[in-house]
Design brief:
Layout (H helix, E strand, L loop, with lengths): L8 E6 L6 H14 L3 E5 L12 E3 L1 H7 L2 E6 L1 H11 L5 E6 L14 H9 L4 E5 L2 E7 L2 E8 L2 E6 L6 E7 L2 E8 L1 E5 L7 H4 L11 E7 L9 E4 L4 E5 L7 E5 L2 E2 L8 E6 L4 E5 L5 H9 L8
Parallel strand pairs: 1-2, 1-4, 2-3, 4-5, 5-19
Antiparallel strand pairs: 6-19, 7-8, 7-18, 9-12, 9-16, 10-11, 10-15, 12-13, 13-14, 15-18, 16-17
């Protein structure tokens, strides 16, 4: 069951080495306290709040004690928080300290105004699904991880192309020689999958992109499948074999040639809170430098 949104207890999570982190965190902390919101700060992030003595929690514990979380840094910081906090149904607000992000879309100069709108109950709520990947070896699961953006199978730098065999719900799709395969959510379709020629998906779509990395055959193109599909990956033996699995930025132990990988939609989505007027297509235009002119 989805937890109803309350704004009584906030969590602050930040990228510790981000520029302007201390000033932005301090502004957030004081603003929330002045609005009557209790503030809990992730332990590593609390080091930037010198002299304030905030109430501190480990990231894993914040989900049990807060109603929503403000993630300060950028999309990468938000990815890590989303994987951890998704099981608790904690909605996230992303504060971007760099350029406008696809996920962290609140800029510091608009912070108090935009956060005030959210606390006043004016916001857009999104739920986006994640992926879960498993590596099975002799029917035992030796690695399991979730991903917000993508699950990537890639060759080791010292080996040749991989011979990747892909099944969709046990139905054979193809066998390909390539440097790897990107399995992406709609959220991740604007990340690594985009650089491999994959399509951009609207975040609300229930679909998964499979995009090959440097395929040997030019006819091997990205494909989009329904999000409830289970994607099975196995490998053909070659003279050399070396492969890794990466879920967002989390790398698996080395894959063995007889291992089987299964990727499916994760059981719980993650939730995003946007100030009113959030426009995914406006962000696309800004990030990708589309349509520099005005609309007709």
């Amino acid at each position: 069951m989805t937890r109803p949104i309350q704004f009584k207890v906030a969590a602050l999570v930040a990228r510790p080495d981000a520029d302007r982190i201390a000033g932005t965190l301090e502004t957030l902390y004081h603003y929330l306290v002045n609005r009557g919101v209790k503030v809990l700060v992730e332990r590593k992030s609390s080091k930037a709040l010198k002299g304030l003595n905030p109430e501190v929690r480990e990231l894993e514990a914040l989900g049990e004690d807060c109603d929503f979380a403000l993630i300060v840094g950028g999309d990468g910081t938000l990815l890590a928080a989303a994987r951890t906090l998704a099981p608790f149904d904690i909605p996230l607000i992303g504060v971007n300290l760099g350029r406008l992000g696809f996920l962290a879309d609140v800029l510091p100069e608009h912070l108090e105004k935009r956060l005030g709108e959210v606390l006043d109950g004016r916001f857009d709520l999104e739920e986006r699904f994640m992926l879960e990947a498993q590596i099975k070896r002799d029917e035992a699961v030796v690695f399991r991880q979730t991903a917000v953006n993508d699950v990537v199978i890639h060759r080791s730098s010292t080996t040749g192309m991989l011979e990747i065999v892909t099944h969709i719900d046990t139905v054979f799709l193809n066998s390909q020689r390539s440097d790897g395969l990107i399995i992406s959510t709609p959220t991740g379709s604007t990340a690594y999958a985009l650089s491999a020629g994959g399509p951009i998906l609207s975040p609300s779509l229930q679909a998964i992109v499979l995009a090959p990395v440097n395929p040997h055959a030019l006819s091997n193109r990205p494909i989009v499948v329904e999000s409830e599909c289970v994607i099975g990956i196995s490998f053909k033996k070659g003279k050399q074999f070396g492969a890794r699995l990466v879920c967002d930025n989390i790398q698996s132990p080395p894959i063995e040639v007889n291992d089987r990988i299964e990727v499916r939609k994760a059981g719980r989505p993650f939730r995003l809170l946007h100030p009113p007027g959030y426009d995914f297509y406006e962000i696309l235009r800004a990030k990708l430098n589309w349509s520099s002119g005005t609309q007709a």
